[in-house]
Amino acid sequence: MRSQLAGLMAVVLMSSATAAPAPFSHVFVIVMENTGYKEAIGNPNLPTLNALAQKYSLATNYTGVAHPSLPNYVALLFGSTFGSHNDDPRQSFKSDNLALQLESAGLSWKGYFQGLPSVGWDGGAAGHYGKKHNPFMLSADIAANPKLRQNVVKLDALSADLNSGKAPNFALIVPDVCHDMHGALNCPRGPALQRTGNAFIKTWTEKIMASSAWTGRSAIVITFDESEGGDKTGGGGKLATVVITKNGPRNVTSAQPYNHYSLLRTLEDGWGLPALREAGQARPMTDLFGP
Questions:
Q1: Burial 85-124 (b: 16+ CB within 10 A, else e)
Q2: pLDDT of res. 156
Q3: Is 45-239+246-289 a CATH 3.40.720.10 domain?
Q4: How far is Cα 75 from Cα 31, in angstroms, rounded to an integer?
Q5: Could you tell me the pTM of the whole model?
C-alpha cells in the first residue's frame, strides 16, 4: 500500500512539474522607435524606462530584424519580413499572423494607434500617424474584413477599455512620431523628444497596472522597432526591451540572443498557438516572462 501511495505521489509530482503554464491573461506591447540599446539604457531623459528595466526584466541582447521600420512591425505580427526592406505603406501581406491566430482561438486582440484618424482607417499617413507602423492594416486579411478592422482603434480607446474591464488579451500600442522618440520636423527634438517618449511610457504603464486587466499572468513589453546610427546587429540593431509582469520575475537581466521573432514566439507559446515562420526557430523569452 505504501509503495502504491508513493508511486501515486510521484506521478502527481511529475505531472505538476511538467504541467503547461497558465495562458497569458493580457499582454500589452508598446513599440517605440529608432533608439539603440546604448541610447536608451542609462539615459537620464528616460527615467521611467530605466526604472522599469531595473525593477522588472531587461533583455540586454535583443535586436530588431531589419531596417527600416515597416519590416520590423511585420515581423512582430507575422514572424517574417517577407523580404521587405522599405517603408512603402502600399505593401500588403496575405498570410496568417498573431491577430488571426488569436481570432481563430477565440481570444481577443486590438491595436491602439496614436493619431489614427478613425477606427480601421486604411490610409497611408495622416498628421503624425503612419501606416508603416501599423502591421494590422498591412495584413490583407484584416484590411479586407470590416469586422476585424474594428479592432484597429485610436489610442484614446485604451483608457476606455481599461476602465470598463474590456482590455483584449493582446494589445499592440503604438505612439505617433512625436511620442515614439523618433520624431518629425515639427516634433520636439533631442532630449525633449526623449522626455516626451518617456512620459508616454509612464502614462500608459501606470494606467495598465492600475486597471483590472493587471491580473493573473499579465505582462507589458516595451521595445523598439529598430536602432539608429547604422547599427545592423541582428539585422535591425541592438534594442532595449523591458518585460513587466504582474507575478513574474523581478530584477532580472538576460543576455540571451532575442529578437522580434522571439517575442512573437513567446506570445504564441503563452496562448498555445503554433509558431509562425521564423518564430518557430526563435528562442522564447521564458526567463523574462517567467513560467
A1: eebebebebebbbbbbbbbeeebbbbbbbbbbeeebbeee
A2: 97
A3: yes
A4: 13
A5: 0.93
